[in-house]
Amino acid sequence: MSTTTIVGAVCLGLVAGIMSGLLGVGGGILFVPVLLVLGLGQVEAAATSLLAIVPAATLGAYRQSQYGNLRLRPALIIGVASIVGVAVGVQIATSLPEDLLRRLFGVLAIAVAAQLAWRARRDSVSS
Fold this sequence. Notes:
Layout: H1 3-23, H2 27-37, H3 42-66, H4 72-95, H5 98-126
């Protein structure tokens, strides 16, 4: 692994950690595009992102629980459902061409950005 890749990964971790703790986002929306730039393939970037978010999410959930913001039951329900979803998603991801996966991720990122922009505009108009 080159020094540039290590520095890029450290910067990615710091930014994603801050964004995750501040806004509850991070994971694939931030990790995957940067990992692609660092030279990983789409499947490897997604898998790496899934593993990398575990410590960040664990620490974030712990710290938020100290403030009384964690709702354990909904978190466990989402977590268990996510395990099933990940198993299905891995099967689908490994059966599709990487180029198609990259395009699908791009569509997802655009959809998320559009939803955030629409909600921000709606909230600023209603205020």
